[in-house]
Amino acid sequence: MSISYRAVRVLPQRARAHVWIVTSEAVTSGLEQVDSRDLDNADFSGQVGQTYTWPVNGRVGALVGVGPRAEVDADRLRRAGAAIGRRLGNHTWVGAALPDVDLDGAICRRALVEGISLGSYKFLTYKSEGEPVKLNRVDVAGGVGATNQGALDLGRAVAGAQMLARDLVNEPGGILTAPEFADRAAAVGRDRGLTVKVWDETEIAEGGLGGLLGVNRGSTLPPRLVELTYDPPGPKHGTLALVGKGIVFDAGGLSIKTGQGMMTMKYDMGGGAAVIGAMSAMAEIAPAAQVRAFVPMTDNMLGGDATRPGDVLKIRNGKTIEVLNTDAEGRLILADALSLASEAEPDAIVDLATLTGACVVALGPKIAGLMGNNDEWIDAVKNASAVSGERVWHLPLPGDYTKQIESSVADMKNIGKPQGGALTAGLILKEFVAEGIPWAHLDIAGPSWSDSDDAEITKGGTGYGVRLLIELARDFEPPGGNSAAESEE
Ligand code: BES
Ligand code: MN
Ligand code: ZN
After folding, report:
1. From ligand 3's centre to the CA of 327, what distance in Å?
2. Ligand 1 within 6 A of 445 CB?
3. What is the CATH number of the domain that holds 123?
4. Domain for residue 488, yes or no?
5. What tens digit of pLDDT does each residue of 429-475 get?
6. With 50 as the cut, is the pLDDT of residue 487 above it?
7. Are residues 191 and 149 in the same domain?
8. Whether residue 82 is found in the same domain as residue 193
């Protein structure tokens, strides 16, 4: 059940819980709701992450801290929202009051709503005794322009899209097979008024998608490629292409992973899930740009006729790749998808992929590696990231490292040296983006999955990237700049 949000002037008396989001200054100067000695005793000083609750005749009062006034930003309000979602999710109706801060009221309301929805997210499909969240109504008061409903609706749409991505990622690989993933993506697309095209195995073969076919060769289940298109109601302001890696389970192929290494590999479609999630919100967000999504889908298994190390695959754009490690499969299916996306001649491409363990080593579990061929477009991704709160870090695509992927039998091989693996993966992808198209690549191997709950993130699939993609689409400007340039630091 999803939560509905309403902008109100004052907290409704009848809500089951009242929560005030407070700065540390507000606590110091004394709150009318609670005796300051009780707060002292509970060590509540309004710092970020702190909560305090008390009973009020059958209902609940709560304080959630956001720290010093000057430090309050969207991230902190999202985090406060998540605390509300987690602590008060067992109440049906909550009234929440925003703090008195200098931040734009719309930004506050949107972040709060994102936090409440995302923080109360649960994946209960396979729990026989799981307790669904009871919270279904939140009234939000306070902040500049307090009665403006728009920011609440935006936050709710964005969070809904991200939770759809989480649901897809959390679904086991044996259930969300490629055909099933495609069916669900197509159903979402039709439901949200998008144009849907699903490539089946025959079309994939006839279309020359040799990377996708090669990775799929060890599987008993067929591959798919899903295309979703959002067309704006008015005149279109450019075209943005989204590409997402959709490996529904990565066993590594014949270059098999360890048992430990494949334990979480159902999340190897986190990029594809983020793209589908973002597309699900397009009609509601209504950007002025056309947005086109391309998600190649397969598992990476080890059947008797699986692609062997040494095999050569021919990608959609005609280039050939010698496969020396079948576990470097994401780049093979993305090569086809980026070629296809390029054929649509978009004004910019962004791809999301759980591509390399090397990127997780470099940046840890919370930050995505950002690479690309156009500095203006890289900046646009950084700006979207700053708004969405999903962190990115720009990594180089060093031209001289291209030597590492030279092959003696094909146009390139699919692996470089063990060090700097995120960059060689990026360099391979770059070969499949047509000349002159601004392109950005996000290696989301770290942030697409979480081992624990943390602020708005919940354990398991995180839906990382959905908010960033929506932000990119929302005020899309076709980038200029020189896309042939190697964006070397
Ligand atoms: N899906 C993995 C990358 C990955 C690893 C994602 C850990 C999330 C967590 C990818 O297909 C892969 O196996 N990459 C290899 C590439 C190597 C063989 C060049 C890797 O990172 O080890
Ligand atoms: Mn792999
Ligand atoms: Zn993979």
Report:
1. 7
2. yes
3. 3.40.220.10
4. no
5. 999 999 999 999 999 999 999 999 999 999 999 999 999 999 999 99
6. no
7. no
8. no
